[in-house]
Amino acid sequence: MALPRITSPHAKGANRTQQVMLQVLLACVPGILALTWLFGAGTLINLLWAGACALGFEAAILALRQRPLGFFLKDYSALVTAVLLALALPPYSPWWLTLIATGFAIVFGKQLYGGLGQNPFNPAMLGYVVVLISFPSEMTSWPAPQRVGPVDGLLHIFGIAALPDGWAQATALDVLKINQSLTIDELWTQHPAFGRFGGAAIEAVNLAFLAGGLYLLHKRLFSWHAPVGMLAALTLMSLVFWNGSGSDSHGSPLFHLLSGATMLGAFFIVTDPVSGATSNLGRLLFGIGVGVLVYVIRAWGGYPDGVAFAVLLMNLAAPTIDYYTRPRTYGHRKPTRGFKLGE
C-alpha cells in the first residue's frame, strides 16, 4: 500500500493546504464576477471545463504513481491551478485549447516534478505560455465586452460556428503594441479597446482582482513583498519611459496597472510560495524582477502582455535569489551558504 507523504507540521484539524486553496478560490470570486458580467458566460464555461480537466489529469497521474487519490485531490491545488489558468485564457476559448493548457499545467508543470511543493515553475503560467506560443490566433481572440451570448459562445467553443464579425476585438495592449502613427489621445478617442484609464472592461477586472488580492493579504496568506515589488517596478518603469501622448508612447503607469493580467499576476501568481523566492527580501527582489520584465516585454517584446513570461523567467532565477538572500540563522553572525570539504 502506498502511504501518503505528509510533511510537517503535523497538526490536528483541517488540512492547512486545503484551507489556503479555498481562500484563494474565494478571493478569485470578484474577478470571476467582473469577467462574467463584462464578457459573458465564457469565463464560467472556461472554469468548469478547466476544473474538470485538471481533476481528471491529476487523478490519472496520481493513479499511475500509485498515490492515494482522495488525499491529494482534496487539497484543491489542482483546482486552483485550473481556475487561475481559466481566468487568464480568453473567454469562450475552444474546448481543445483549454484541455491542452490544463493538461500541460498539471502533467508537466506539477506532477512531472513530484506534485505540489516540488514544481520549480508556476503550473498555470506554464500551461498558458504553451498555448500562447502554439496557438497565437486563438489566444488573442478576446470577445468585445457584452457582445457574446451564451448560445453563440458554446457554438464557438465546440467549433460548430465562428463568432459573428464585430464580436471580437483587439485588447488595449495589442492596439498600443502595433500603433505607429496615432497619439495616445487619438487612440483613446477612436478605438473601443481603451477605457477610462486602462483597457476597456479590463480595468474593472483588474480592480476586482486587486480587491481579491487585498483580501488574501488581510488574511496573511502571503506577505506584501512580491506584489508590492512587482507593482512598484512596473509603475517606475512605465513612468521612466513614458513620453506623454506621443505616437511612440508605451502608455502611462496607470494604464499598465489596469491593463492585461497585472493584478491577477501580482496577487495570485507571483505570490506562489513554491515557485517563488522564500525570504522576504527574496520575494521583494522576485516581484521587482517580474515587474521589470513585464514592462520590457510589453514595450519592446513580441507579445502585448508579458506577465506569464516574466513569472517563468523569474522562476528560473528564484533559487539564485534564495542563495543570496538567505536570512541569518539564529546564533550565527552571517547566513551560511554552504560548507567546505572537511567541515
UniProtKB/TrEMBL annotation:
Its main location: membrane. It comes from the Bacteria. It is a multi-pass membrane protein. It is found in: Cell inner membrane. The modification FMN phosphoryl threonine is found at residue 171. Its cofactor is FMN. InterPro entries: NqrB/RnfD, RnfD_bac. Coiled coil: none annotated. Pfam families: NQR2_RnfD_RnfE. PROSITE patterns: PROKAR_LIPOPROTEIN. Keywords: Cell inner membrane, Cell membrane, Electron transport, Flavoprotein, FMN, Membrane, Phosphoprotein, Translocase, Transmembrane, Transmembrane helix, Transport. Belongs to the NqrB/RnfD family. NCBIfam families: rnfD (TIGR01946). The complex is composed of six subunits: RnfA, RnfB, RnfC, RnfD, RnfE and RnfG. Part of a membrane-bound complex that couples electron transfer with translocation of ions across the membrane. This is Ion-translocating oxidoreductase complex subunit D.
